């Protein structure tokens, strides 16, 4: 077993499961990754975000420390 490279990391669990269940042919299978949740956004909110991004793209960047308001 190599914890660093995750090589044969499942072997002790398979052995323990086979002893507990009484089935020497038990195998672990990899579960597929779930799909990410679908984002539902109203078109008005999306338009507002796009307008905000356009406005922020047109703002000048501060040139030095004296240009940064505190």
From TrEMBL:
Arranged from A to Z, the UniProt key words for this protein are: GTP-binding, Nucleotide-binding
Its source organism is Streblomastix strix
Q: What protein name does the entry list?
A: Uncharacterized protein
Listed GO biological process terms: protein import into nucleus; ribosomal subunit export from nucleus
Please name the GO terms that the record assigns under molecular function: GTP binding; GTPase activity
Highest taxon of source: Eukaryota
Entry's Gene Ontology cellular component terms = cytoplasm; nucleus
User: InterPro entries per the record?
Assistant: Ran_GTPase
| Keyword GTP-binding annotated | yes
Transmembrane segment boundaries? none
């Amino acid at each position: 077993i190599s914890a660093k490279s995750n090589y044969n990391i499942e072997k002790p669990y398979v052995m323990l499961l086979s002893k507990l269940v009484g089935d020497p042919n038990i195998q672990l299978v990899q579960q597929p990754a779930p799909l990410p949740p679908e984002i539902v956004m109203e078109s008005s909110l999306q338009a507002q975000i796009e307008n905000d991004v356009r406005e922020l793209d047109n703002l000048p960047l501060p040139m030095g420390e004296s240009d940064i308001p505190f």
